[in-house]
Hints:
Mean pLDDT: 79
Helix content: 10-25%
Number of strands: 12
Number of helices: 5
Radius of gyration: 59 Å
Shape: rod-shaped
Order of helices and strands: HHEEEEEEEHHHEEEEE
Structural class: alpha+beta
Distance between the termini: 189 Å
Strand content: 25-35%
Strand order of the largest sheet: 8-9-12-11-10
Amino acid sequence: xxxxxxxxxxxxxxxxxxxxxxxxxxxxxxxxxxxxxxxxxxxxxxxxxxxxxxxxxxxxxxxxxxxxxxxxxxxxxxxxxxxxxxxxxxxxxxxxxxxxxxxxxxxxxxxxxxxxxxxxxxxxxxxxxxxxxxxxxxxxxxxxxxxxxxxxxxxxxxxxxxxxxxxxxxxxxxxxxxxxxxxxxxxxxxxxxxxxxxxxxxxxxxxxxxxxxxxxxxxxxxxxxxxxxxxxxxxxx
Length: 237
């Protein structure tokens, strides 16, 4: 009997304790629900950077590497057209034989080939397809097809082997075996044909330099290729 009373008292005390704990829990819950929490301030707003514009180069690989068509290529083949015509070949240069200057500018003695007659050519005159631009001891300038061709005098000077060829030995043998020609008698012939304001000296003219004839004075002076002879007009004649 006594034990039952003790157990009943313990059960009653446990029920009181359990109800007290339940009431305390409800009080704390009510207090938490009534408590107002202050919201935290929002972080500062910063705008996102604008995306770069879409460029065709960014999707070029997509257009060129299409899995459905491996032969796809955005490069359009361009027809190059017919090739340009080959440049016009330059003809052989004229042959240089000498140069003279009678006081009115240099004159080049040229010929088309080594075996054709030579002729005096002044700057601005043509020989074949070439036009003489200038000539001096440093070289000669020729114009062809709108281009200026410069050559040294040694490059276009006629060579004995080129002008005579295999006939040179035969001519030399004939000249050695033939008797020397008789001397040509000179005679006073006076001024010759007029050319560029002066008159030429006739062959075998025996008149001395300084002789005046028909209003012309005979002039003989050394040149780069021998004596230069001509008749110049006398002032007042």
